[in-house]
Amino acid sequence: MRKRTILLCLIALIGFSSASLSWTISKELQQEVKEKKAAVQNNPQSAEALFDLAITYAYTNNILEGLDTLKKVSQLDPNYKHQGLKTYFQKVTEQPSNWKLRFRLAFAYYFNGQKLEAIRELKNVLVIDPYNVWAYGYISLIYGEMGETDKAMQAARAGLKIDDLVAALHLLLAEGYYRKNDSWSGFWERATALRLKAEGY
Which conformational region is residue 77 in: left (phi greater than 0), alpha (psi within -120 to 50 degrees), or beta? Predict the structure, then answer.
């Protein structure tokens, strides 16, 4: 039994995915990150520029950087969350088919503690861009925070059907399994996530 367990762990850690699609950052998104970082460097006291950069990080697989930047927004201007919501609600009203603006509106809602509204906007992102794995990821994350484990896992699985090489989605799924006391499946998903992260996903 112990040999079988060790073998399965090794497969999880060094195995290969059968996915035909692997999320990679496009040159366009790389340029966008560069421009948003430059905007912050040019105006380091701008909460709007920081928020803009944070959300760009959110949909370019720079998750930790995005969260750190969001924290800085609150530190710089605790009242920006109200202005940000007003700003992006207006921008989405003017450009309803712009998924990046809807992504920002979703985080503005989240920033204001309106999690169901944030999920709604992330689902609107998916109407515009059905293959946006990051929208699925943040839907999963928010449902998880709300204690809606089944819905969180469902969203993570939906994202993995699009691209099963996204480490963050495997981590979200692992968290769901642990919450449901399925430690073996949780371990498997976490091991897969660690392997993919080591490979640059």
Answer: beta
